[in-house]
Amino acid sequence: MMEVKTVDILIIGAGPAGLALANWFRNSSINVLLVDKKPGPTRRGKAEGLKSTTNEIFDSYGIGPQIATESWRLEEIAIWGQKKDGKSGIEREQLIQDKVEELGKVRETMLQQSRVEYHMQQNLLSHRNITIQYNTQPVDVNVDESLLHEDEVYPVEVLLVKTQVHPEASSNILENSTPYTADGAAKEVEERIRARYIVGCDGAHSWLRKQLQVQLEGDLTDSVFGVVDLIPKSNFPDLRRVCYLRASTGTILLVPRSNKEVRLYIPVESGSSLSDPKELTFDRIIDAARKIMSPYTLEVGAVSWWSAYRVGQRVGSHFSRHNERAFLVGDAVHTHSPKAGQGMNTSIQDAYNLGWKLRLVLQPHHKLDSDASRRLLATYESERRPVAQDLISFDRGYLKLFAAPSSQFDTEFLQAIKFTTGLSIRYPPSCAVQLPKVVQTAEKLGPSLLKADLVPGKRLPDFQAVYQADGITTWIHKRLQATGCFRVIVFAGDLAAHQHLSTNVQKLGEYLADPENGLGQLTAGGEAAPVEVLMVHSANREKVELLELPEVFRPWSDNDGYDYWRVLADAESVHEGHGRVYERLETDPEKGRTLVVRPDGYIGAVLDVDDFEGVGKYFNELGMLSK
Amino acid sequence: MMEVKTVDILIIGAGPAGLALANWFRNSSINVLLVDKKPGPTRRGKAEGLKSTTNEIFDSYGIGPQIATESWRLEEIAIWGQKKDGKSGIEREQLIQDKVEELGKVRETMLQQSRVEYHMQQNLLSHRNITIQYNTQPVDVNVDESLLHEDEVYPVEVLLVKTQVHPEASSNILENSTPYTADGAAKEVEERIRARYIVGCDGAHSWLRKQLQVQLEGDLTDSVFGVVDLIPKSNFPDLRRVCYLRASTGTILLVPRSNKEVRLYIPVESGSSLSDPKELTFDRIIDAARKIMSPYTLEVGAVSWWSAYRVGQRVGSHFSRHNERAFLVGDAVHTHSPKAGQGMNTSIQDAYNLGWKLRLVLQPHHKLDSDASRRLLATYESERRPVAQDLISFDRGYLKLFAAPSSQFDTEFLQAIKFTTGLSIRYPPSCAVQLPKVVQTAEKLGPSLLKADLVPGKRLPDFQAVYQADGITTWIHKRLQATGCFRVIVFAGDLAAHQHLSTNVQKLGEYLADPENGLGQLTAGGEAAPVEVLMVHSANREKVELLELPEVFRPWSDNDGYDYWRVLADAESVHEGHGRVYERLETDPEKGRTLVVRPDGYIGAVLDVDDFEGVGKYFNELGMLSK
């Protein structure tokens, strides 16, 4: 009889989505198996653009610096159009900074998918609870419906087929033991896995999606794209800027990469003789590019990758099935054109949304009961499906912006890049996004293109502050490592100048540490606590003594003394200017504010600074206080 | 008969100095052998502070980001003294920012020596011309005096003894083949090496120094230091700041490290019962620290390293011998107290000063004749010996500053940190540091504590500028990779507004590319050229077209098109503010200026922007135009 292995989570697909999901389970006891039919990590080509919101995820995984070092920054965008004087050829119409003022930092960088995968994969290596197994594909899945409402069960059963290859022929660097046949030939071995949860991160042709009978809704459009990564030898003056080129002969989106390379995206209009991807050869793509760029030259240097493909604009009917035991993430459940550089970003962000919820549900301590678990896991679909739908609506209109720039082009473009950066995402109310009662019905909740602000369901805007203890500068999303814990961030205001604020901090400190109301159990335990309490004050740093604040803001460990990095100041940094946190977050230093921030950096609740009960209510509704 | 291997350079000692020296020979055909008697890289403890000038060296070696990511930043300094009211105990007297305004960036970071060595060593791995051999010590050296004036000879002969150990017992990760005895016991094997040059980077007890009969001049002082790296459990409020603590019972220099650790330096006064390092046990160091920190508590958490040692303040009589065939670098030729955190920095900077000179002399193309070679190599001693002497003079007075802070404390302290950062270093005139004739005699050349400025012999002040081609921001020392090439940096001024400046740039471009005057041979050849020509203009970027500038500023390669990264603008960066280069360097945008910058980032010559001949004269006097 075949032995059956059990795992907590089985992830199908070790691309950006699968690896981003697996990264949530570092430093936990949750057992994760990633399988992929590929023989090893992706080597080249494919997705490339990284938005700042995705780079914040890498920061929270501790791999931000490595990825930033290798990435190519994008700073300027040039719009080129047909010459206005009726002559043939193109001319530069506009030069735009690739900048969203309120972000306060670089909005977009370029790094090829293979390197992004590499860093996420390296980050898993020392974690024995996470295994990646290449050359492995699932062939059958069953979910036992009778077990769905039970805890501590493994309702998902999957049959895997592992193609065993000679180790030297395999680039499978993470698999420890690969038996192989004597002559080194591929051999197939079956393996049966039982899992608590299964997640399909298996791309546009997702096997799991088909098994779960999830339909993709929307059009398989006629859009065919040619994509080429090459070193151009050319006298075109804007090769090192992002360029939108519009000529009578077609359009190009040109994006600079490292190593003197550029990427050219060339959409082929429907009805064209090239609208079948199979017809779109490399030479034809380059011919089309030459015609568009004329009279500038284009000679081809080294070519590192090229591809031609047809794009579908579709969203899955469901993002989860079987009572939140099976999930679909990334390309497996939505596809769209590469025009706005969204593919890899949205996949990673889907995974980031799901991961902490699974971690919270599977955490041995402070575990939610089965109702609370399902309620939380159901927010994956309610939060991420509208994002995919909005993306496709946006995608449809995106190129129109460039086709005939209007007089409001600058404003429209800025709104578009805010959208593609993810700044307009706002998750709807749920157990994890709680609105104050008064606005629960009144407020409109559609996607907003407003300035990044403190609203439940929106990402916490990143900001720069200074640690009270040592004057070192940090950005808040670098501080919010992906450990699975929630944060209560107390914007305590100018507590040196206002007695009511310092009194409040004392009371809040007591409330948050109180074992009676249940919060004390959530905040105790140092780095392993499910809730970490932080403060950002706006007082003169020299008038605040860290060790005089309530202990929840600088907990003691018998092992290594105080935690010095929970209290930040909105102050001038020694070397990097003033973060102006209160101003940017429109928070009154005389009043303060308390935020509950979810493990994924999204805002769970916005409370008055003296609304102690509000904090308790948030964790109670989530089910974390229920035992 | 014993086989004799030949190498271009034999380096004794693979610590910070030896590794920094070896890094100069990456991407060259120069053969380098590093030997060290240690069984492998340093593991812990020892030196730690990195000044910005040292971090610039890491940037030029391409390992700046990795080192910065691991380093701990220092932002604030607290001065503590005996309570003024006569009561026992200490109180905070002053809080100072660790900042030098004109640097425009972080002045000091902390990273332990073992990690610094690790990154420098990793950076050599892919370079087959550089070998590191551990478990190896030299036992005999001979320099054949009859060969000293010849080219293409190997006048240095060294007998090495290699202790062969079982590979599993060895941490020798770089040596490829270590034969060993059948029982795994250590075995000694002799090896004879002939080298063109030998460099002793073998520390305070330098073997090579003794062989070269170089005397250390100065005192072996009575200063004994206890040093401890530990996690303190303490209610002292400034544990995360650099602290100078002065109590009636003694003084402590406290420096925060990563992982919640701090380093304590505790000098023991002469005449004390503890002035013999052997008597200074860990418990005694901690007892002394407790008394000084009282009434604050100090409990000991994890201890990662501690040591006690006596400090000599001494400088070698010579830094090179045998007609510039043998050199001494770093601790091998000067020692001083750890108070100003200079040990590792000065060693690395010594090596950085010597490396490019050896590279230029050994370069197969554009090689200097033997007179020019010796003249250049002699500048190692004339440039670095005064630095070591100044350091010791400074060292003697340094703690006085803190012992009884005067009313000018702030000013004195700022001057002191400028000094320890290396900003006051100014190399004397030589073939590599050329003064305009008019000032050659008139100007005083001693170390100056003036604002960083454009003076021959001083380090090029680092500055932030924006690439013309893509708007990407860089700091100039990040741009000046250690390839061995000189740079001619043309501060072309506002060439869009002033006809005389744009005319000048055209003429200068022609002159620098002219094969007739010899400069054309130095500037041709793309990345392999011995001289790279850069421009920093102050014009409106939109009014400058890169491809309309002379080709020397954007050379073409048949392989990969134009070089887009030789022209920079003094302009507002999209995401990082304005570098204000012309203002900071006090350069008139209507006049401009031309600099010759040496491969080590020091200024070789400062010229009027139309002084074309001055550029030729510089390379001619250096001997690079002599053939």
UniProtKB/TrEMBL annotation, chains A, B:
Chain ranges of the Phenol hydroxylase-like C-terminal dimerisation domain: 425-622
Domain named FAD-binding: residues: 7-394
InterPro entries: FAD-bd, FAD/NAD-bd_sf, Phe_hydrox_C_dim_dom, PHOX_C_sf, RIFMO-like, Thioredoxin-like_sf
Signal peptide positions (record): none
GO molecular function: FAD binding; oxidoreductase activity, acting on paired donors, with incorporation or reduction of molecular oxygen, NAD(P)H as one donor, and incorporation of one atom of oxygen
Keywords: FAD, Flavoprotein, Oxidoreductase
UniProt family annotation: Belongs to the PheA/TfdB FAD monooxygenase family.
Protein name (database record): FAD binding domain-containing protein
Taxonomy of the source species: Eukaryota, Fungi, Dikarya, Ascomycota, Pezizomycotina
